[in-house]
Amino acid sequence: MTFTHRHLLGIEHLRPEEIVTLLDLAEEYVDLNRAAKKHSDALAGLTQINMFFENSTRTQASFELAGKRLGADVMNMAMQASSISKGETLIDTAMTLNAMHPDLLVVRHPHSGAVDLLAQKVNCAVLNAGDGRHEHPTQALLDALTIRRAKGRLHRLNIAICGDIAHSRVARSNIILLGKMENRIRLIGPPTLMPAGIAEFGVEVYDDMAEGLKDVDVVMMLRLQKERMDGGFIPSEREYYHRFGLDADKLSHAKPDAIVMHPGPMNRGVEIDGTLADDINRSVIQDQVEMGVAVRMAAMDLLARNLRTVQGVA
To answer: Per DSSP, what are the bridge partners of residue 51?
Structure first.
């Protein structure tokens, strides 16, 4: 299988064939997760530590479930109650963990680049579960798997990513991944929520939902990242929903079989209409959650294989 990386820190360094390798393996884990016996021994004998410096529901739960289903010893560290809160540096924390000889380290951190820094200081495989505004690679991979299963392919699709692009690591990882797979990407949102120089990424930028959603195959909505905003980026949530919140009227401009996505958590009535989010004929939001477990199983399996190869263990 084509996947030679020691860590999964972002999408940027993955080649298209490596993305396909990971998604193909994830397909096998979708089947396993739907079976009566949901366990594999791919990570048997290995230790997985989850370090979440930011709150998380879906990502942390799915990484924990993924590790346990693969047979790993899984430990969740309560970072809010850790020595970090007493003034310990990230490097000291890394060195302490390294002395415990973990095999897989899953890290979410509020600062861009922090996970990469940790990866340089430890001997185990590191998976980025989201770092600041930088990247969220497993989210982009699970989105890709969801799209591929719904559309039958992951190339030459028209895909709209809508909302708070400026503060979203999910948007960044998806733009990189979907671009690598030869898709046409449109970004839709108010100018205040568009990063400077975003057009250099080879995307089309719109500030009108009707125009931007015209004939798209996939509509990916994003949460307003209020915790990362330090100013007045929108007039009000009501006004934002009126102009950029997805409802049936705005969705009518997309293709009749267009799918609706959202990485969660959702602000119903702000970025998406609740009825539309629950419409099983259009929304694949629950499929994204299911694909998240399978993709994280595949990512940890591939990294563990490379780890064992380095260690000389068959």
So the answer is: 77, 107
Task: Decide if pLDDT at 59 tops 70.
Answer: yes
Alpha carbon distances (Å) from 53 to 37, 81, 104, 128, 294: 33, 10, 17, 12, 23
CA-CA distance, 312 to 314, in Å (whole number)? 6
Of 269, 273, 270, the residue nearest 260 (C-alpha) = 273
For every residue of 16-29, DSSP letters joined together read HHHHHHHHHHHHHH
Instruction: State the greatest distance between any 2 C-alpha atoms of the chain, in Å, as a whole number.
Output: 59
**H helix intervals, the chain:** 16-34, 58-69, 90-98, 114-121, 137-151, 169-180, 209-212, 237-244, 248-251, 274-277, 285-311
Lowest mean pLDDT among 131-135, 258-262, 309-313: 309-313
Neighbours of 97 (CB within 10 A): 20
Q: Could you give the CA distance from residue 163 to residue 224 in angstroms, rounded to a whole number?
A: 7
pTM: 0.94
Side chain identity, residue 281: N
Angle (deg, nearest 10), helices 16-34 and 169-180: 110
Strands 104-109 and 73-77: what pairing?
unpaired
Encode 126-139: b = buried (16+ Cβ within 10 Å), e = exposed.
Answer: bbbbbbbbbbbbbb
